[in-house]
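EI: anyone free to look at a 107-residue chain?
SC: sure, send it
EI:
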Amino acid sequence: FKQFNFPNFLTIFFLLLFQNHNILYSGNHYPNNDCEYTREPFAARFVSVEFNHTFVLITLHIDPDDVLNETGALVNVFEWAKFQYPGEDDFILLGDLNADCSYARSS
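SC: here you go
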């Protein structure tokens, strides 16, 4: 559970639920505070107990008012996550991407 307070904005809570007899939290996490997102991405690494396999979960809530720019910057999120977790190959993006196309309009 992680809470972020944004000045003059709102409070964002990240909560990742998992069964600790199947999945282990690796003990490190990274909020990306230096990015182009209104609500910064958050990443954490986990290990599957049964398969001894690591993976990183990345939470992201794309701002509906800036969906085209923030969606276009998704590659930066993965580059940032790969930098934080060198050698990791498995990344899973979670969250509200606001990708229902109602926000995308032709200009």
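EI: The chain has two helices and six strands.
SC: 👍
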